[in-house]
Amino acid sequence: MWIIFRLLLVTAALNLAGAESVTTNANAFAGYAGSESCRDCHKDDYELWKTSHHALAERGASPAIDLVAFVPSRNIKHGSETTAVQTNGSAFQIVTLGMDSNRQPFRVERVIGNSPLVQFLTPFPGGRYQVHEASYDPKSNQWFYVYGDDLRYPGEYGHWTGRGMNWNSYCAECHNTDLQKNYDAATDNYHTAMAEMGVGCEACHGPLKAHNEWQAAHPKTTLKDPTVSKLSPARIVGLCGSCHSRNTDLTGQFVPGESYYDHYAPEILDAAGRWYADNQNKDEDYEFEAFMGSKMYQDGVICLDCHNAHSYKNTLQGNELCMRCHNGGYPKAPKIDVASHQHQCASDCKGCHMPVTVYMQRHPRHDHGFTIPDPLLTKELNIPNACNRCHADKSTDWAVKYTDEWYGTNMNRMTRERARWVASGASHKLIGLLADTNQPAYWRAVAASFLSRSADEPATQAALLAELKNEHPLVREKAVRALEPSLADTNVLAALKPMLNDPLRNVRVAAAWVLRATVDMQGQAGQDLQRMLDLEADQPTGQFEEAMLLLARQQPAEALKHLKKATAWDKLSPPFLCAQAQVQDQLGQLADALKTLDQAEAAVPDDPHIPYVRAVILKRNGRDDEARTAAKRALEIQNSFIPAQLFIEKL
Question: Could you tell me which of 204, 207, 223, 205 has the C-alpha nearest to residue 215?
Answer without folding.
Answer: 223
